[in-house]
Amino acid sequence: MKKLVMAVLVTTILAGCKTSPTGRTQIALYSDQQMSQMGQASFAEMKKTQPINSDPRVNNYVKCIANDVIAVLPQEYANQSWEVVVFEEDSANAFALPGGYIGVHTGLLKVATNQEQLATVLGHEVAHVIAEHSNERVSQNSLLQTGLQVGGAALDMGNVQYRGEIMQALGLGAQYGVVLPFSRSHESEADIVGLDLMAEAGFNPEQSVSLWQNMSAAGGSGTPEFMSTHPSPGNRIKELQKHMPDALKAQQTARAKGKTPQCKL
Questions:
Q1: Cβ atoms of residues 108 and 102 within 8 Å
Q2: pTM for the structure as a whole
Q3: Band (13; pLDDT cuts 50, 70, 90)
Q4: Sign of the C-alpha dihedral, residues 101, 141, 137, 2?
Q5: Which helix (H) or strand (E) holds 239?
Q6: Which residues are catalytic, by number?
Q7: What is the spatial order of strands in the sheet that 94-97 belongs to?
Q8: Which of 105-119, 125-139, 142-156 has the highest mean pLDDT?
Q9: Mean of the pLDDT values across residues 225-240?
Q10: Which of 40, 71, 113, 161 is most buried when burial is the number of CB atoms within 10 A of its CB?
Q11: Cβ distance 136 to 26 under 8 Å?
Q12: What are phi and psi for residue 214, nearest 5 degrees?
């Protein structure tokens, strides 16, 4: 029986192997539809439990930047409908969920001081989605903690017993607005993919460095919630600078095509 179970596990894992945008091998056992259902349920729950900002000026600004980033996503993501919500929350946070959902905390606007810096964060968060990091996280959670059988049962979002596990697997805490960290490899990958996305949208990628400097400064003696267990600011900036020449070329190409973001708060 043990051999049979192991054989099933190995076969399932091999069937779920994919390659991330940076060439990293990953395990993604769930379908796009299943992940979208999880994202939809999670986002709906957050909208019920967290105050939403209703300032048209703030919302138009955030959506303007989000739309520019979304426009350069791979076709399957760019063509889907995206919902962007600004939550009234002081923490410097943002997130994106499978299925086309983006949440931005008002506290982030105090740290991301211009359109390029906010585009850095939104590019980073959307990169988590297109790189299927949530799927990878849910898959790992199912394999390591609950097993494949319970993992399948967890897809039933009506079963309250598994709601907490799914929220955590998607990167969401019990309050639904606190973004738990992905792994450092996920974060580093999202940094690079997000840098490319913002540059391809016409935003100045050099502002990504300024954004993370602001994040570090905002933490004072500690670390902003958004950066918890992320790569250290110094290492993160070094990696961004390493990829900056390619990002600047991408921005130049975007500008030549008429992509000149003009999002103002």
A1: no
A2: 0.76
A3: very low
A4: negative
A5: helix 233-256
A6: 125
A7: 83-87, 101-105, 94-97
A8: 105-119
A9: 68
A10: 40
A11: yes
A12: -65, -40
